[in-house]
Amino acid sequence: MQAQISRLLQATTGLNLTSISPSIVERAVRRRMENCTTTCIEDYWQHLERTTGELDALIDEVVIPETSFFRNREPFHALSSYLTEEWLQAHPLGKLRLLSVPCSTGEEPYSIAMTLLDARMHPGGVCIDAVDISTRALTSARTAIYGDHSFRGKELQFRSRYFRSTEAGYVLDESVRNMVHFTRGNLLDPRFLSDKAPYDVVFCRNLLIYFDRPTQQLAFTALEHLVRPGGLLFLGHAETILASQEVFVPFAQAGAFAFRKVLPRPALTGLRSSVPVAAPRPATAQKTAVPMGLPLPSRTAGSLEEAHRLADSGHLDAASVLCRNYLEVHGPCARAYFLLGLVQDAEGNAARAEEWFRKALYLDPEHLESLVHLALQVEHRGDTATAQRLRGRAERAEKRRSTGAGR
Ligand SMILES: C[S@@+](CC[C@H](N)C(=O)[O-])C[C@H]1O[C@@H](n2cnc3c(N)ncnc32)[C@H](O)[C@@H]1O
């Protein structure tokens, strides 16, 4: 009977419960049986089948709601620069749509809301949807009163700006609360948010790691539909390997674990329309000339920011030229090598990409993005042991970076 309940829970939530903890279902069932004042598991099974809400209550017992405000700072920094450097310029009057799934007890979507307010976005121009499968987590999210465990790390200035300290805990300001709309939902439900338009930005962090491979694929297909072309997807640091290199390309910012959904290839028109077209390459591997309106690469050093932006938007040749010019003028530079690696990766040259990432790491052994991307490359060709070692190095480098230790 225990195994039957376990299968039902796994099929509903997608969570690989036995690998999370062999006793997690047993504990959950015991708690629910106490609550229903029954000692017979067969009776409980019948109750579970017949009673609306009992499955939800059982789900609440097995989910892992672990979260905190501004969990891993970098994604929020990356979001802020995406908004100010790109989104606001392209959509001065548009409405920005963001999704946090799973949102757990609300710390993540509220951190997104605070990031937007800090970037001086008008709340009226923003829509933040936040979804989780756990009714209990959502109730807590809507209440928006938090204890110390929701605030980690040293950068806590936001707490005095957006919270009021009370006996019950830190109460979140209305201005932030009102920006987030919570709903219950299951990412694996085929109708998940099917009535909503795709989002500009989706945060889906620290859920996919709890799924097995086939479930991860299902979830990823859902995510592909949830992000609009050109929009961003933020994953947890251990989940980046799942991003399909055909649909998402790294939106490289140190430790942000963000990906941009590629734009559909423009249709070939005009004079060349009668020419047979070769099988399309993945959109990530699109080579484009320097786009109109962008500065032509010169012999002087181009900015690496610009190269980064060009690489992210698929203008690979232009990005490559800027990096090489930069290296010519400034000499060896880890970031430029890393960007050249990204370009090679997007062009489908895995071996060349690896060479550039290794070159970057030779110069700067703690270059976080190179560690992360090299880990992805080696994992892709089956060397999981090296990938794991590189991820360990990346985590240590990230920690040192966020605590300000070392370089
Ligand atoms: C570890 S928390 C992650 C919260 C937040 N994204 C973060 O990174 O801080 C995982 C959450 O996933 C939710 N969850 C589990 N399975 C889900 C599913 N199939 N659909 C939506 N949410 C799910 C759980 O209820 C839990 O709140």
Describe this protein's structure:
It is built from 17 helices and 10 strands. The longest helix is centred in the last third of the chain and has 20 residues, at about 385-405. The model is unreliable at about 265-300 (pLDDT under 50). Strand 9 and strand 10 form a beta hairpin. The strands form 2 sheets. It has a 7-stranded mixed β-sheet. The chain has a 3-stranded antiparallel β-sheet with strand order 3-5-4. It is an alpha/beta fold and about 400 residues long. The protein starts with a helix and ends with a helix. The radius of gyration is 23 Å and the shape is globular. It has helices at about 1-15, 15-20, 25-35, 40-50, 55-60, 75-90, 105-120, 135-145, 155-160, 175, 215-225, 305-310, 315-330, 335-345, 350-365, 370-380, 385-405; strands spanning about 95-100, 125-130, 145, 165, 170, 180-185, 200-205, 225-235, 250, 260. The structure holds S-adenosylmethionine. The site of S-adenosylmethionine (SAM) has 23 residues, from loops. S-adenosylmethionine (SAM) binds near residues 13, 15, 63, 64 and 186.
Residue share in helix:
40-55%
Low-confidence stretches: 266-301
- Termini separation comes to 55 Å
Structural class: alpha/beta
The hetero molecules present are: S-adenosylmethionine
State the CATH architecture of the largest domain.
3-Layer(aba) Sandwich
Side-by-side strand order of the widest sheet: 6-2-1-7-8-10-9
CATH topology-level name of the largest domain: Rossmann fold
**Domains (count):** 3
Looking at CATH, the homologous superfamily of the largest domain is: Vaccinia Virus protein VP39
